[in-house]
Amino acid sequence: MKETVKDKVEKALKELRPQLQADGGDIELVKVEKGVVKVKMKGACAGCPMSTVTLQLGVENFLKKKIPGIVKVEAVQ
Known about the structure:
CATH architecture: 2-Layer Sandwich
Number of strands: 3
CATH topology: GMP Synthetase, Chain A, domain 3
Oligomer: single chain
Number of domains: 1
Helix content: 40-55%
CATH superfamily: Fe-S cluster assembly (FSCA)
């Protein structure tokens, strides 16, 4: 069975999750559409002013390096 892009993103987020959880936050994959990953920031990350930086510099860069075809990561409510 071929691993989908969504499967790859889920696997990559599992690697990141402990770092976010250490600060009281978490991340949930909502969907992947045309190279855009939509995630929901949870816990402490949901209201944190630094979550945008975490998302762009941390999560987005990590996913782009690990998974070809990822162009952007967006937070959704």
